[in-house]
Amino acid sequence: MTKHTDNETLDYTLIKRHRKRLRITQDELASWMGLQRMSIVRYERGEPIPPESKKKLLYFLNTETQEELYGNPTDDYGMEYQKLSGGNYILKIPFTPVCQYSYLLDTFDLGDTQISIVFDRINSGAYAAFEVRGEAMDDNSRYSLSNGDIAISKEVKIEDLSEEINPKDFWVILIENDILIRKIKGYNQNENSIVFKANNPSIEYADFSLNVSDIKRIYQVTQRITKFLN
């Protein structure tokens, strides 16, 4: 790829050609440059380009991928996303397999193990993944979380929970001596307690209540990876 320097004459025909090569629109290039779309339209027609815009366009012409052009954006939690050419994003998140449950409970440190998840947009939040242990959330339906599945989850602050919780949502609950996955059956703000329930109707997975103060962390499950795919 030919490198372009600040002291050369900018060939306006290269702008559209390179833009098509990187698969970005005039709107996207204009947004990256801090301009309106019509500025890009004029530049691609061969109209005069101001010095500051020329400098940015030369940088643009020297990039080989969208990732190089945009860099890796981060969300409000400092989690770094890698933009893909198709418009999706890859995010590396902490992953806790069952064999590391005891370490997490001892330290409440999610550790260094990571997995990559594809998102269609930047979803601001503290994400983590957990391997499912046991059959509490398995009722043999397509909505089950089975032993060995991976639950992709987003941390929620206890104070942000409300009585309007969707009863279909799954939650990863970290308490002092265990990591559980359940649905929330009810949240009693007056008593400061939450009732959890399993999907599995077996008596060994009966409903139980926890005082909010006993919950160290809680994560809302946003998607799953079945054990047949991971």
Describe this structure in words.
This protein is an alpha+beta fold. The protein has helices at residues 13-22, 26-33, 37-45, 51-61, 66-70, 101-107; strands at 81-83, 89-96, 114-119, 127-131, 150-155, 170-175, 178-188, 193-197, 208-211, 215-225. Strands 1, 2, 3, 4, 5, 6, 7, 8, 9 and 10 form a ten-stranded mixed β-sheet that branches. The two termini are 38 Å apart. The model has no long low-confidence stretch (mean pLDDT 85).
Instruction: Please mark out the parts with pLDDT under 50 across 5 or more consecutive residues, or reply none.
Output: none
Distance between termini?
Answer: 38 Å
The fold-level CATH name of the largest domain is: Umud Fragment, subunit A
Structural class: alpha+beta
Characterize the overall form.
Answer: elongated
CATH superfamily heading of the largest domain: Umud Fragment, subunit A
Number of strands: 10
Average the pLDDT over all residues and give the rounded result. 85
Helix and strand element order = HHHHHEEHEEEEEEEE
The radius of gyration is 25 Å
Q: Hey, roughly how much beta strand do the residues contain? A: 25-35%
